[in-house]
Request: fold
Amino acid sequence: MGEPINVPLLNLCSQNQPLAEELKAAFARVLDSSQFILGAELARFEERAAESVGAQHAIGVSSGTDALLLSLMTLGIGPGDEVLCPSFTFFATAGAIARTGAIPVFVDSLDADFSIDATDAKRRVTDKTKAIIPVHLFGHAADMDGVQRLAKARGLVMLEDAAQSMGATHGDRQVGTMGDLGAFSFFPSKNLGGFGDGGMITTDDDALAKRTRILRVHGGAPKYYHKVVGGNFRMDPLHAALLGVKLDHFPDYLAKRRANAAQHLERLAQCEHVAEGRLVLPSEIDGRSHTWNQFTLRVSNGRRDALQAHLTENHIGSAIYYPVPLHLQECFAHLPSFRESLPVCEKMAGEVLSIPVYPEMSEEQLDHVADTLANAPL
Ligand SMILES: Cc1ncc(COP(=O)(O)O)c(C=O)c1O
Reply:
């Protein structure tokens, strides 16, 4: 028997090693400059990142979580306010709301694309509702038509959580450019994966950009004079320089993810588990381009654990994003939503399983994933 084919969920080494010389040169440039906080290196990355996502302003920050928190601070969200957000998302979306003192109001999701259900959101609007956070989950744009209509009709500010979806489009707009502010993450597993924690806030609004930049440095404007309380939310210039190297390759990473997803979809569409409805494939909705940060299957017959064990036995990585919807998290047990049922997202949490789709997968690895899924004991 030959060597087993290994397919990790993600392989950062295969993406970063080919860039080693360019990355070392970027590091040397920052070392020689001795500019380790803010400065030209960060400004250059921000300009290029803004251009890449089609926004007027991009502001580099310390993480995607801080991008959300700082955005909410910029928008003036605080105690007494209610903020609508999906329950089926990464914790940071709701964690950031709670940290401002506002109340996360959890909304159910759409079966078709894992995104916030604007009709359900509308039912939950009260006179305390100030904002809505659609999350572009797994690399796919949320259903923005409904969200934009609701925000406009009820005068809500909109923060897009684009942490997983840099480069995804909705009509002719990229994610992060449709709301008042957009929040991005450069966590290493993201489509533009950094070298530690990092994030970005985007906006077309000059005044919001200015306020965000002030709050990023403790609210000091000018330095040491504080009209508002901010925090230290800066992205390091070293990180900006390293991310700048990868930004050159970003279109290529997206194209490869799209090609891998297309191959998964084509191969798996022929398998019996899909034809007979036990496995449900993710889809790209018309008019929205997917960036495939995750390729998320749904196992509809209760045998997800068996499928995950089968993948593990065959040396294929997988992960459950996310096993517990946020309205059922213990830290939110004091909220009325803890006793409620959000049926779509609860079902999703019991069915989802994400499989490898990273850009550097080989043909052999793609084949191995498709064959292993086709032979799974479902
Ligand atoms: C939807 C979503 N929002 C926010 C974040 C937070 O980003 P970070 O890990 O960079 O703080 C993440 C990261 O996983 C995410 O997936």
User: Anything to note?
Assistant: Residues 250-374 form a domain with the Aspartate Aminotransferase, domain 1 fold (CATH 3.90.1150.10). The chain has two domains: 13-247, 250-374. Residues 250-269 form the longest helix (20 residues).
